[in-house]
Design a protein that fits this description.
The protein is α/β, with parallel strands linked by helices. 19% of the residues lie in helices and 29% in strands.
Length: 287
């Protein structure tokens, strides 16, 4: 297998920010391996990623596989702005995969009169557009990779109006390459620890929800930097990136949290927009 690169294109949750060191765009992470681009969530960061693909900065891509975790808009709002939806005859094959609730929200969000359906935008631009519904426990075979879906603990509302969301985490295994765990929009509990450990224990890179700073703040289906540090302690072989930073989390608060919780945990880092890493036999290294 040729070079495999990972990049953070968006790492904020909830809404887009302006002028932060950590990053301004909502969730989007990508692994590039030859002709295949595996994308985790489609927030505003997808717009920047798609521009890079169309320009050729991310070169040689023929197939794009987008894995959406759930229905909240900050995880799919970048789909309509992706340059490949607006560039005639670009030849890309795009697959959008996720839970039924998320795919329904995407279709409804882009339906008239709000906007234009993605299937219409794809006409004359993409080579193909495919939709795949996933459920917890499902395995998706993609060119050069296998994806396993697991149920995450995520919800909207307060206790009196709490609404569980159909939310999936993903384990992405590249053939002959690295394994990646994606646990975004997930509030850890004692009951979910076995799931977290199974995914992170079988991965060289783990993206872990860090919407808040401390475990005492866990709420609305989100975790914390403090808990991401615990994951790093339990799985010292994995490079743990704390991500999905809440829109009220300042750069200084995030950096201070890493100083406090990252002590003695060299495998814990902050996911920052623009962060790039390359995989080889020795593991991941930033570039």
């Amino acid at each position: 297998m040729g070079a495999i690169e990972f990049q953070v294109w968006g790492c904020r949750g909830g809404r887009n920010m302006h002028g932060t060191r950590t990053g301004d765009l909502t969730s989007c992470y990508a692994v590039h391996a030859g002709a295949d681009l595996y994308v985790l969530d489609a927030g505003r960061g997808l717009g920047a990623l798609a521009e890079a693909v169309v320009r050729g900065d991310v070169a040689g891509v023929a197939r794009v596989h987008v894995l959406v975790t759930h229905a909240h808009v900050d995880h799919w709002e970048g789909l309509r702005d992706a340059a490949w939806m607006w560039t005639p005859g670009n030849g890309l094959a795009l697959g959008i995969h996720g839970p039924a609730e998320a795919l329904a929200a995407i279709r409804a969000g882009y339906a008239p009169p709000s906007f234009v359906p993605l299937d219409v935008l794809a006409q004359g631009t993409l080579a193909s557009l495919a939709w795949t519904e996933l459920v917890a426990g499902a395995t998706l075979e993609l060119p050069g990779a296998r994806v396993s879906a697991v149920a995450l603990h995520h919800y909207s509302g307060l206790a009196s109006s709490r609404r569980p969301l159909e939310t999936l985490g993903y384990h992405l295994v590249l053939a002959g390459g690295p394994r990646l765990a994606y646990l975004c929009d997930h509030e850890p509990t004692d009951a979910t620890r076995a799931t977290e450990d199974a995914l992170c224990g079988a991965s060289e890179l783990a993206l872990v929800d860090a919407n808040y700073g401390e475990k005492t703040e866990h709420a609305f289906g989100h975790g914390s930097l403090a808990y991401a540090a615990e994951v790093a302690t339990r799985h010292p072989h994995a490079w743990v990136l704390a991500t999905h930073h809440g829109p009220l989390r300042s750069d200084d608060a995030i950096d201070d949290g890493l100083r406090r919780h990252g002590a003695g945990r060299p495998n814990l880092a902050i996911a920052r927009q623009g962060l790039r890493a390359r995989w080889n036999a020795a593991g991941w290294s930033t570039v």
